């Protein structure tokens, strides 16, 4: 039985080696430049940091979907183009590999008394990032339609399929299911969430060798295929 899960993909903020001042309330001089992905939650975070800067601070920001492509070169330059970047789990890896993220232990000790231990992303005992948000997956249902076919709110994907077939069989909807099946990131995210729901692990223990070509991976692909039979081909 494959349980529905709300799998989290954590997002972290990291300060980068640079000669500029770091954003924070009480700063009255210097230059602060921030690089981040381009979506509303990060706009809010960066705008709040900008409000904290004093009148003598020059504050610039670059919200771009190409942040991962430009971050390594921008931070390798001397001086670095940005004094801070906001990164996700995946985009932090190239920076860590190139020694472009500095430990944040001193800043956490000075300003992070409110932070929970679970937010502190540590590598070799050093705080390299601070998690501040996560993506969550949700299942929305039409209870009025489920009531028409006598089905409860699904708690497993098997029950989702059962409800879909009942709705199709009753002629209520041709395509009763939809999800993020768009090619590339969206479909990959669906696979990740469902694979974890099957109890799968991504790497062989103690190694960086992928371990998705297994029973759980095949079951995930089969379930995704079954769900597409209930969804509009355009989705």
Key traits:
235 residues, alpha/beta, 6-stranded mixed beta sheet, 6 strands, disordered N terminus
- Could you tell me the radius of gyration in angstroms? 22 Å
Give me the secondary-structure category. alpha/beta
Total strands: 6
Could you spell the SSE succession in H and E letters?
Answer: EEHEHEHHEEHHHH
How is the largest sheet built, in terms of strand order?
A: 3-2-4-1-6-5
Distance between the termini: 25 Å
Give me the number of helical elements. 8
Low-confidence stretches are 3-24
* Average pLDDT: 84
Q: What fraction, in percent, of the residue positions are helical?
A: 25-40%
How much strand?
Answer: 15-25%
Question: Mind explaining what this structure looks like?
Answer:
With 235 residues, the protein is an alpha/beta fold. It is 36% helix and 17% strand. It is built from eight helices and six strands; from the N terminus they run ββαβαβααββαααα. The protein has helices at residues 40-52, 67-76, 89-97, 105-111, 143-148, 157-169, 185-197, 215-228, and strands at 9-15, 30-36, 57-63, 84-88, 120-123, 126-135. It has a six-stranded mixed beta sheet with strand order 3-2-4-1-6-5, with helices on both faces. Strand 2 (30-36), helix 1 and strand 3 form a beta-alpha-beta unit. Helix 7 crosses helix 8. The longest helix has 14 residues, at 215-228.
